[in-house]
Structure formats: C-alpha cells, structure tokens
C-alpha cells in the first residue's frame, strides 16, 4: 500500500507516514513524522514554548488495527525547557494519550462498558492493568467535563458508598430533579461535604431548597453551615432504623427491670426471641396477642411501640 494512502487512512493531524519499518501477519510498525514544523506544546503546562530544542526522541504508540493487524506508530517527540518550572519537558500531541492514540483509548472505553477489563485486554492484545489505566483516565476526563463546574441543584441527596475494604468510602451528591450524580469525592463526613459546598459556591449553596441524607452528624453539620435555607429530609430507611433502635433500648431497660422484680410473664414477653414482633410493621394475630398482653403488663414499651408506629 502506498505511503500516502496509509497517511490518509491514519489521518493524524500534521503527521505523515515516513516509512513502514516492519510488517508481519499480526502487526505493522510505522514511522511517522511532522508535515510542517511547528513550535512544541509543553506536556507540563500545555503552553507553546519558543525555547531551543533540547533533544529529539521517539516513542512507540499503539493505534487501532488495520486489516486485522495491530498498528504501532513510532512518533518523534522533541524536548525543551519549560520556563514555568525550568525543567526539560517532552512535547505533547492532541491525538496521543501516553503510549496510545485517543481513538484506541476510546475503543478501550467502549469495550469496558460492555465487558470486563481482562476480556477487553484479550481482544485488543494488551494486559488488563493497561486497560484499567486507560479506562480510568477516560472516566476521569469525562467526569471532569460533566461535573466541572458543579451544577447547582435545587433539591439534592448525599450519601457515602463503600468501594473497598478497610473503610474506603466515596461521597456522592445527586441532583434529585435531574436524577444524576453531580459531584463525588473520596472520603465521607463533614470535611468531604464542605468541599462540595465550596465547589458549589456560597450563592448556589443558599439556593438549595432541600437536602436528603441518612442523618449522619457530619453531613447534618455541613448542610446546616452552608445550605442554611435548605430543608433537611432524612431517608425512610434510616428513620425506621432510629425508631427501632429507640424502641429496642426501652425494651432492654424494661426487661432488666422485669428480671430484677422477678416478673416472669413480662420478662418472657420482652425477651429477644419476641423482639421482632415489636419491630415488624405488619399486623398479625400473634402480634396483636403479644401487644394486648404488653398493654396490660407494661405501659412503657407499649407506648414506645405506639409512638414508633
């Protein structure tokens, strides 16, 4: 195939195919070079520098396959001193992502959306650790594009999710009206949510009408400090949990008192074997019988049961 034809197929900005270095049944190695000489773009600060070229090297980057053959591009890269940090930096190209082209990285991202890293790596001929790094980089860039600046919600919910053992958490903030995550960060508690409100800004924080959360003290403190006009709504699951815990505390107190007073009937009624009868929401004949006995023997637990309901 003619070099010009391959250049057109690759369509690399300001690059052309110089030479086919090697070709086999499984892969093809291509040397590319600049068409027009331009000033290098610094990989550290992203600025175009006019400093003298320090040296010229060459890297190998993988591109999408051609006719079933893996394509490896050998790309010359210049080095120059960056005036921002006074260090020798290599130039960067918009179509390259480390040792892979952007379109190769997008192919990895599409594959990992429908299969595992190991299977995507097997299909592309790279190891799953490389697939993981590429996929993570793509996800971070997409998240940065969609979540920066932070969209201002009117109603929001906040909760933490454990993503790894040994108490590794990430806090997610969801826009309830749009039903999508608008912010997340490693960690949990007040300091993490404070970072969200800092990114959101004071003005937008005061415009939040309602915040749903699980009642964690750190979250409540942060919400009250920054979203002063917001109504705090505790989620149904944790409200029921708090009520059940409070009722169980009363049950334990009355059980100890019944045992101390040697009231065997009440002690048997308040034993942990029958704890579920007080906690369940549905009414059954057995539950009604127990509650009727409880109303006669101990008003404290019975009243706690009624208050919980």
Task: Describe what this molecule looks like in 3D.
The chain is α/β, with parallel strands linked by helices and 309 residues long. It folds into four domains: 1-94, no CATH class; 99-148; 155-234, 2-Layer Sandwich (Nucleotidyltransferase, domain 5), CATH 3.30.420.10; 238-308, no CATH class. Helix content is 43%, strand content 28%. The protein contains twelve helices and twelve strands. Strand 9 (168-175) and strand 10 (180-186) form a beta hairpin. The radius of gyration is 32 Å and the shape is elongated.
Which descriptors would you attach to this protein?
309 residues; alpha/beta; Nucleotidyltransferase, domain 5; 4 domains; 5-stranded mixed beta sheet; 12 strands; elongated
Largest sheet: 5 strands, mixed
Evaluate the radius of gyration.
32 Å
The computed structural class is alpha/beta
Estimated share of beta-strand residues: 25-35%
Shape: elongated
The number of domains is 4
The strand count comes to 12
Average pLDDT rating: 86
What is the end-to-end distance?
Answer: 79 Å
Order of helices and strands: HEEEEEEEHHHEEEHHEHEHHHHH
